[in-house]
Amino acid sequence: MLIDCRLDRGLHSSNRYQADRSYGLLFVLTYGKIRVSFENIAWVAEKGDFIYIPPHTAYATDSLPGVFHEKYAVTLDLAAAPAGLPLFDDGLPRIAKPGRYEWMTDRLRVVHTEWQEQAPYANVRCSAILLELVALWSRELEREPLSPSALLLAERMKAYIAGHYRERITKEDLAAAIGRSPNHAATLFKRTTGQTISEYAHAARIKTAVNMLKQSRLTAGEIAEYVGYRDLSYFHRIFKKLTGYAPAHFMNERDGRE
Q: What whole-number distance in Å separates Cα of residue 31 and Cα of residue 245?
């Protein structure tokens, strides 16, 4: 199903494609903004937006003046995709910010890493992850969208976790942060992010750990303790589960400076 996955970034880019394509395209903005045009519709896409362009649809993407952007660009062979997925089957272009876009973007980073490194069976794993993302986005298309007030509460909970992810966070903590009951907070959080509170907090910790493994001179044990794991073996287990690699894999990217 996956033909290509690349990461584009910069200040200046312009792409125009005619309608004779036989493949689908998925763009995911992870930073900045770009202008997207298709079928007489112009849209300024921003961080968190997922853009799907079906086959045989002309489109254009352009940078905004002076605005740096970063996006994943995925090329898909829909002939190899299963039937029954609304995102593919209805043949419509779409721009949306899925409720669980942060988790989905993290999964897409795994796809990009696997594809670029061409690890054994990378195509199989990448296609499986992409199918999961498409299935979850298709599921959202069939559900009633969340209200703006519910989305605002979800953002407040995510902001709380961003400031406290190194600590133990419970549904009671999030409930207090938004003024709702613990069960309401937990249910809303799962609905909007696709993750439990614990899963989201682990992802935030590991994301910080990955950056520190690449850029700092700290040991894996020191980093584990910094992001909230006192048990090093547990840190290694969670790290491998979420990234597919051991911490040493990312330490190899350090530039050698003392």
A: 25
Contact 108, 58 (CB under 8 A): no
- Nearest-CA neighbor of 132 among 113, 110, 107? 107
CB atoms closer than 10 angstroms to residue 146: 16
Pseudo-torsion of CA 93, 95, 96, 101, nearest 10°?
100
Please, are residues 96 and 49 in contact by the beta-carbon 8 Å criterion? yes
Residue 27 in contact with residue 72, Cβ under 8 Å?
A: yes
pLDDT for residue 42: 85
Decide: 168 and 204 in contact? Cβ < 8 Å: no
Specify the DSSP class assigned to residue 17. E
User: Tokens in use for 179?
Assistant: 């003024």
Kind plus residue range of the DSSP H or E element containing 97: none
> Does the CA dihedral 237-132-214-249 come out positive or negative?
positive
Give the CA dihedral 30, 142, 85, 127, nearest 10 degrees. 30
pLDDT of residue 244: 82
- pLDDT score of 256: 52
